[in-house]
Design goal:
Blueprint (H helix, E strand, L loop, with lengths): L7 H20 L1 E3 L6 E3 L1 H12 L1 H18 L5 H15 L2 H4 L8 H31 L3 H31 L12
Antiparallel strand pairs: 1-2
Helix pairs in contact: 1-2, 1-3, 2-3, 2-4, 2-7, 3-4, 4-6, 6-7
């Protein structure tokens, strides 16, 4: 029986993606005004990597990148690490729909990409993170749901602008299937 291994390209993407997420979350975070909640451009990187390399890569990039960030701040906040990992997983499930790697990311795919990322941000930050904050850390619900709404809204906005630009830019570097002609 043949075992399927993770392609080397995906493993490299996980390493690069996690490193980028860590650096951007740690050093390019803009405070939102809500405690422990920042505007992070890292969410755009996580989203695009997950949309190109799939759910496993998205999950691991979110998990590793966020864990490393939290470790450098003194302690891992597992509820938010899990939310980032689940967000990457959800985005990655629709890799075939986006057609980024095939060079087919156009207007329709951009709209679908943003609908999926907004819904995924809602699931991760408005449902999972605050609920786990309450269950794991006994945090007050009004505080954590406000943080979740702000985090989800900011992440959605960052991905809408920066993530969409990155996805369009990356897909333009790819040759569409069937576009080459024999002369």
């Amino acid at each position: 029986m043949e075992r399927k291994l993770i392609p080397v390209r995906t493993v490299v993407a996980i390493g690069i993606g996690a490193a980028l997420v860590f650096v951007l979350m740690r050093f390019v975070a803009i405070p939102s005004g809500v405690p422990n909640t920042n505007l992070n451009v890292a969410s755009a990187i996580l989203t695009v990597f997950a949309a190109i390399f799939g759910p496993l890569a998205g999950f691991l990039i979110g998990f590793i990148g966020h864990t490393l960030t939290d470790l450098t701040w003194g302690g891992v906040w597992w509820s938010w690490v899990i939310a980032d990992a689940v967000y990457g997983l959800l985005i990655g499930f629709f890799v075939k729909v986006y057609k980024i790697e095939e060079g087919g990311f156009g207007l329709i795919q951009g709209i679908i990409f943003n609908i999926i990322q907004i819904l995924s941000n809602g699931i991760a930050w408005v449902a999972i993170a605050p609920t786990l904050d309450i269950l794991i850390y006994q945090e007050p619900s009004d505080k954590v749901y406000l943080q979740g709404l702000v985090a989800g809204g900011l992440n959605s906005a960052v991905v809408l602008v920066l993530g969409t630009i990155l996805a369009f830019g990356y897909t333009r570097t790819k040759v569409k299937a069937g576009s080459l002609k024999v002369e």
